[in-house]
Amino acid sequence: MLFRSNYAGSSFSELLDLDHPHLKLDFAELAQKAAQPIQAPHGTTVLAFKLDDGVLVAGDRLATSGNMVASRDVEKVFATDERSLMAIAGAAGPAIEMARILRIELEHYEKIEGEALELEGKANKLSQMIRQNLPAAMQGLVVVPIFAGYDVRRRTGRLWKYDVTGGRYEETELECSGSGGIIAKESLKKVWRPGLSRAEGVRAAVEALMDAADEDRATGGVDVARGIYPIVKFSTADGIEDVPESELAEVYTAIASERANRG
Known about the structure:
It is a single chain. By secondary structure, the chain is an alpha+beta fold. Helices cover 38% and strands 23% of the residues. It has one domain (39-261): 4-Layer Sandwich (Glutamine Phosphoribosylpyrophosphate, subunit 1, domain 1), CATH 3.60.20. The protein contains eight helices and 14 strands. Strand 2 (46-51) and strand 3 (54-59) form a beta hairpin. It is globular. The N and C termini lie far apart (69 Å).
């Protein structure tokens, strides 16, 4: 049966609120019903930095719940459309749901308006979603993502960080988030420069996540035994590109060998 709606706007969330409110997963209501802050699995360290032809976004694969491993192979970097990426840190459930809803929002907008939302508009949309999550964040379900992508109009890569209230701040070079974010950022600061090549960017991302894993127990390092490597993606004028695990394995082996030779 064909469903007809009285809502004529381009926001998928507003359409859902008006016509199908029962389909929305309300993390704020869930958290408010809890007698104490919820102990949910948390994603840990993600990072992003600019390259001449776009941006690189990466994240480790570990999710923790307190001092326990919740999952060893969580995906923390999501393509939200053909040229934008969201890297999640914080409460894994709400963060992953937020990334999925954002992708649907952007697809819905493009279908209704006939053109894609500009990159800054996408960043604003994510800011609104984080602000709506504030009641849940007060109960422990904090989401602090990084949003990045290729700006077709400006012909450059751009990236934003967020705070728990939905405030967004554009960064001109690089940003890291999560429990190991400070360590990863210090690692990246030593090697990042304008004009990094693709290979240099992949190495910088892997090495920063390895440094974070060395000092932060909640950040997952490379798990050679299980074949689990970080997720690394590029966003350029050509679209989203996934760095294959075979390439990541070669980069990790090279870095580990150099460190071993240094004693």
